Amino acid sequence: MTDRIEVAAAELRPLLEEFIVWARTNAPDSSPELVGPAALWHRISFSSHVGTWTRADVRGVMLEQMPKVVDDPDTAADGMASALDAYLTFLSKTGRLSDRSDSLADLLGELSDLEEEFIDLMEDLIGDEEEDDDGDEEDEEGGDLGDFEPFADRLADLDTIRLSPDAELAEAARAVPLIAKARDLSVWVGTGRRVGEETLLSEAEVGEALDVVGLPRPEAGEDVPQLWNIWNLAVDLEFIEPDGEDTVSVDEDTTGWPFDDDEDVLDAWMLGLHSVDYGDPELQDDDLTMALSGLTRGLLIRLLLAGGARELDGLRAELAEAAADIDELGAEAWTAAAGHYGDPLAPVLDWLVGYGMVSVSGDVALTPLGTEGVVHLADDADIEVDARPAIESMSALDLLALSAELPEDEADAEFAAWMELREPAQAAAELLDAAAEDDNDALVRVQAASVVGTLGEAAVPAWQEALNHPALRPYAATHLSQLEVPDAPEPTQDDTHWLILDMWTISAGLGRAEFVSSLRDIGPDLLNNLLEVIWKIPHAHVEELLDLISQVHPDKQVAKAAKRALFKARSTSS
Fold this sequence. Notes:
- The protein has 574 residues and is mainly alpha-helical.
- 63% of the residues lie in helices and 4% in strands.
- Helix 1 (2-26) packs across helix 2 and helix 14 (312-326) packs across helix 15.
- This is HEAT repeat domain-containing protein.
- Residues 127-149 are annotated as: Disordered.
């Protein structure tokens, strides 16, 4: 859809610019800048021709599309109808309203008939926005200490964070005490355990459960929040599952923890990651508890910003100040937590140490698991952090996918570091195997071939193996020929055409301007010749590319040739 929008917008831009100039003289009371979205979505959703308008199109644009895309419903309510009236008149007066359109009188009549309904829709949007604004204000007032957004810029500016290899993370996760407690509690729950309507367990059962997880029994009438936090963690980990009404059972795989497979271990640990919120202080007063909401995440954020470690006293003082700033009850809540726990950070640190995320001495420091976890929490909050897998744990596909998003110098550095850990022949085989995983991904294919092409004769076995994969064969034949490998097949014309289609696919992904520029580099005569034959290539994107050429190429003859080629390609594929 993004490509279609870009193509349609580029097609409309000169026409809209002319309309704006026309409107200054011929429709001075209109707001021509409002027409852009209406014309764009008419082109995308209703007509392949910008000058073909029907009464149904007018209704669809105004009542279906505009409510979805309009930026300022108040301004649209005041001026959209008159602006579209001027635009349709402009199309008619300049000869651009096609013969297949309804008459101008009918179009303007339809527009007049639905104007009141359109205004009602805009007023509904205005009301929704006001409600959203009220909600945003409430959200701002109810923001907590664990919000990532206030730290977004600082997190984005951090140096690259290297995440530990999965094998090391999995080994650490296997030793996480809280997961072991959750397992033991789940095994104790067993099969078909009834839970009460008001309390999860009877008083006797609570005592048994506390013994199982190694927590002290409380005085009569005291709550046991630590037990319920472990219970909730067991649910998060899917160790305990519903088993009918008011009944729960242990999952059959739970007794296998710690699992043998590293991926299974990390998947389980990630399921329980949001349990960090269970570390927040729980006080008798609910309002005071809420005032310290997010304290555990707030500590993790500050550790990440500090490069992984902070001195405990300074961290405690900063969080106390933040609590007072973010909530009017924050200072009171901090004092209450200090009285209840001895240190407001005591439950926070107990949980994070128990979940393997921090270590505590004179400083509080993120463990490798902790760094992995807080990066995931930032990602969940849509906050950008430059975190990359450890070079030694990156697969070839990981490397290719990451490098596609990096500036060229950084990508080169990643490739160099990765290949230092492998013999050239092994690197070549891994890269080409990764490129063979998805025939749709031309960028990964080109990247892999480019890097493997620098490895010389060491890559010959990998190139020979790649000859068996249709999407890689053109690259393999080309490089084997360049290396003058005996008995290597010569690149065919079809191979050359495949390489061209891959390059077009990549340039199309960069945007219309880059795509048109790549086509112009070929020249219209050669491009026409290519279009006569390239449609035959069984490339994943050939139809999409031919369609795009027919829409964006400035030379009408080339555009027509692309349409003919597209028809042939579709006829063949069907």
